[in-house]
Amino acid sequence: MHKSIIIGTGPAGLTAAIYLARANMNPLIIEGMEPGGQLTTTTEVENFPGFPQGIMGPELMDNMRKQAERFGAEFKSGWVESVDFSKRPFKVKVEGMGELEAETVIISTGASARYLGIPGEQDNVGRGVSTCATCDGFFFRGKKIVVVGGGDSAMEEASFLTRFGSSVTLVHRREELRASKIMQDRARSNEKVLWALNRTPLEVVPSENGVKGLKVLNNESGQEEIIEADGVFIAIGHTPNTGFLNGQITTDANGYIMVKPGTSETNIPGVFACGDVQDTRYRQAITAAGSGCMAAMDCEKFLEGSAVHDWSESLDK
């Protein structure tokens, strides 16, 4: 029996682990297929406070893991197959470990960026291909940038990236965009935003030091084209990693866990959520870490028998 099991090891899960371990709660942290989360695929992180010269993403996550271990957190690697939150103690079934029991569970499984699945894409993540304009836009100051997508996220990323790039070409496979009118108007009014609509991405073209451009199919002419760019930003959305919950936790229409505003509480008392798995807006390492702190403190108060109540009825109101 564990006092608390944390599922996921990005900035949120590791921060929760640090706080719970310092409180002598000996949390068990289940690392999934991507220990450390999305930051392990990031090169230099320049906007995490405390590192004036920046820090490599994998190094930052490794430091946070060691900090949690220092205070007694236990880490195990495995894939969570299912959970049973119908009653306490909660049950967490992990591949290769069987069924684990816990008085509380913190879910910090994050959200995975959607990729196009084209050649050259995965090979160049961190070398010119990115899914986060806020994280990586600075590295493309004065350079040509491509943004792929047709929704609000793509419009927002394109507009943001004009602060850095000499030009931003927005690529979408259809002539019509899915984005709201206000977001489209904002992007179209920016003279730095160029448009390559009705074009299907085929390949990220590499160069010796990163990316040379994006090969696309012109759907009207049937001809292949290369849009020159130093950076290719994929903005086609994220998928929250909540499939293993089997509908036991209340989520929004896109699968993100819903928490009581201002807390990390889910609709099930004793189950908490933090990080990108419940964040549809900010999705930054620092906000994930902050929510991990909240989850740990909410968890500790719950185990002390104070302050946490079932608020699931309010979700329907």
TrEMBL record:
Residues 3-292 form the FAD/NAD(P)-binding domain. The keyword Oxidoreductase applies. Its EC number is 1.8.1.9. One of its GO terms (molecular function) is thioredoxin-disulfide reductase (NADPH) activity. InterPro entries: FAD/NAD-bd_sf, FAD/NAD-binding_dom, Ferredoxin-NADP_redctase_2, Pyr_nucl-diS_OxRdtase_2_AS, Thioredox_Rdtase. Binds 1 FAD per subunit. Keywords: Disulfide bond, FAD, Flavoprotein, NADP, Oxidoreductase, Redox-active center. It comes from the Bacteria. Its cofactor is FAD. It catalyses: [thioredoxin]-dithiol + NADP(+) = [thioredoxin]-disulfide + NADPH + H(+). NCBIfam families: TRX_reduct. Belongs to the class-II pyridine nucleotide-disulfide oxidoreductase family. Homodimer. PANTHER family: THIOREDOXIN REDUCTASE 1-RELATED-RELATED. This is Thioredoxin reductase. It comes from Paenibacillus lacisoli.
